[in-house]
């Protein structure tokens, strides 16, 4: 079925992987990518698809009502997949303002545009859908046992997760109040190509290759449930196509790991793939325990039974196969990482769009 999809935040980590997946696998879909190109947006990551006639990039802010309205009108958007957000927990602790603006006000602006453009034209769930990409962090922190289900009460504990919870509540309210055909996905930690090196896995890969310290917060015993990004993107497409409107779907990798285990695995993989460091030491010697994150959630673990049973989605990648692909991608794309680290990725689009 033909669709015209507004992807917000399509120049971020998951958005880039999602745009690529759509262009590869959904021949009849048109993709409009709206991205503000914050520090986390990297236009170069989509350089090779920029001339695809099914793809349009628009540099703009999801909080800008006029810009969003114009896009709905001009491109006849029938599907929204909303990724755009401030996404890094540590930044939300040191500077929460942007998280409130983009994650809450931005989501509200998009919901209003969808309400005005779709419902006033009598469009319903057969013709249009608004998928909000959210996080498992809305559920708070688990102890040693148990899993987050779609029934778990919200208990956000960082400014980031509080802002994502707020946006989830708004999205749900638009379903109940106006009948807007919405869907919500709450996913665990993603990893894979094109991730900004402020997040654990690409940060460790970058530092380890340069012989720099590998900062592990607290005792390294915090647990995350890791999902290869391609699996997340496939799950989102499944929910867009087959999900029941008004519903939330948890997405997870069945891959619970302690942070220290993840860092040690990355060190061992690099030692094997590129050899020990010049000093003859393993990269494990770079591991440095540092001050813990404020309010650091101890454990996340997803029960992804609902999306499996109702929509037939399970992850295709194990942690081992996903990590193998990820490490190889970063090793073969060192120039991508360098352009992020030295800031030249910003120059690329400043030349096109101004600073
Ligand atoms: P990211 O930080 O890599 O990318 C965010 C993108 O949004 C960037 O391209 C940025 O330029 C854009 N953006 C930010 N503010 C904007 C604004 N006001 N207007 C338009 N564009 C704006 O994030 P990500 O890791 O790709 O995450 C994408 C979404 O998935 C987020 O909503 C996040 O909460 C959610 N999520 C992420 C993970 C994860 O592990 N990364 C897991 C679950 C859910
Ligand atoms: O669970 C889903 C969430 O996963 C998403 O909603 C967020 O957008 C995404 O950023 C991610 O949040 P985390 O805080 O879990 O990811 P991060 O990579 O920042 O950290 C992963 C774990 O590693 C966490 O327990 C903190 C720890 N950590 C992180 C960094 C950057 C370290 O020990 N050292 C580090 O240098």
Task: Throw out a few tags for this protein.
355 residues; single chain; seven-stranded parallel beta sheet; globular; binds 2'deoxy-thymidine-5'-diphospho-alpha-D-glucose; binds nicotinamide-adenine-dinucleotide; 12 helices; alpha/beta; three-stranded mixed beta sheet; 17% strand; Rossmann fold
CATH architecture of the domain at 3-189 and 229-253 and 300-315 and 345-353: 3-Layer(aba) Sandwich
Query: What is the straight-line distance between the termini?
Result: 39 Å
* pLDDT < 50 runs, ≥5 residues: none
- Name the beta content range: 15-25%
| Rg measurement, Å | 20 Å
Helix content: 40-55%
Query: What is the residue-mean pLDDT, rounded to a whole number?
Result: 97
* Number of DSSP-assigned strands: 12
Q: So what's the CATH class of the domain at 3-189 and 229-253 and 300-315 and 345-353?
A: Alpha Beta
What is the N-to-C succession of helices and strands? EHEEHEHHEHEEHEEHEEHEHHHH
Task: Explain what you see.
The protein has twelve helices and twelve strands. The mean pLDDT is about 95. Helix 1 (about 15-25) crosses helix 7 (about 230-240), helix 2 packs parallel to helix 4 (about 95-120) and helix 6 (about 200-210) packs across helix 8 (about 260-275). With about 350 residues, it is α/β, with parallel strands linked by helices. The strands form three sheets. A seven-stranded parallel β-sheet has the order 3-2-1-4-5-6-10, sandwiched between helices. Strands 7-9-11 form a three-stranded mixed β-sheet. Strands 8-12 form a two-stranded parallel sheet. It is globular. It is about 45% helix and about 15% strand. Strand 5, helix 5 and strand 6 form a beta-alpha-beta unit. The chain has a domain at about 5-190 and about 230-255 and about 300-315 and about 345-355: Rossmann fold (3-Layer(aba) Sandwich), CATH 3.40.50.720. The chain has helices at about 15-25, 65-75, 90-95, 95-120, 160-180, 200-210, 230-240, 260-275, 305-310, 320-330, 335-340, 345-355, and strands at about 5-10, 30-35, 55-60, 80, 130-135, 180-185, 190, 215, 225-230, 250, 255-260, 285-290. Bound molecules: nicotinamide-adenine-dinucleotide (NAD) and 2'deoxy-thymidine-5'-diphospho-alpha-D-glucose (DAU).
């Amino acid at each position: 079925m033909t669709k015209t999809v507004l992807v917000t935040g399509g120049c971020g980590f998951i958005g880039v992987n999602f745009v690529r997946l759509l262009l590869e696998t959904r021949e009849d879909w048109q993709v409009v990518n709206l991205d503000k190109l914050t520090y986390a947006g990297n236009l170069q990551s989509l350089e090779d698809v920029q001339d695809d006639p099914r793809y349009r990039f628009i540099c703009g802010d999801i909080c800008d009502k006029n810009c969003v309205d114009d896009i709905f009108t001009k491109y006849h958007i029938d599907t929204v997949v909303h990724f755009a957000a401030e996404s890094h927990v540590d930044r939300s602790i040191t500077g929460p303002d942007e998280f409130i603006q983009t994650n809450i006000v931005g989501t509200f602006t998009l919901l209003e545009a969808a309400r005005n453009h779709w419902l006033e034209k009598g469009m319903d769930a057969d013709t249009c859908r608004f998928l909000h990409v959210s996080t498992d962090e809305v559920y708070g922190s688990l102890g040693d046992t148990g899993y987050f289900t779609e029934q778990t009460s919200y208990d956000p504990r960082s400014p980031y997760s509080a802002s994502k919870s707020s946006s989830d509540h708004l999205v749900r309210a638009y379903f109940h109040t106006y009948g807007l055909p919405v869907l919500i996905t709450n996913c665990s930690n993603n990893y894979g190509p094109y991730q900004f090196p402020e997040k654990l896995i690409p940060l460790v890969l970058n530092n380890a290759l340069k012989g720099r310290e590998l900062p592990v917060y607290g005792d390294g015993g915090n647990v995350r449930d890791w999902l290869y990004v391609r699996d997340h993107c496939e799950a989102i497409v499944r929910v867009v196509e087959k999900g029941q409107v008004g519903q939330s779907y948890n997405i997870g990798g069945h891959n619970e790991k302690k942070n220290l285990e993840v860092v040690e695995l990355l060190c061992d993989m690099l030692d094997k793939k590129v050899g020990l460091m010049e000093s003859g030491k393993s990269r494990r010697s770079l591991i440095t325990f540092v001050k813990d994150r404020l309010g650091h959630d101890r454990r996340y673990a997803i029960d992804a039974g609902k999306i499996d049973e109702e929509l037939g989605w399970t992850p295709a990648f194990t942690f081992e196969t996903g990590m193998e692909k990820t490490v190889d991608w970063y090793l073969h794309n060192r120039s991508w990482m360098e352009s992020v680290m030295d800031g030249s990725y910003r120059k690329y689009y400043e030349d096109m769009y101004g600073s």
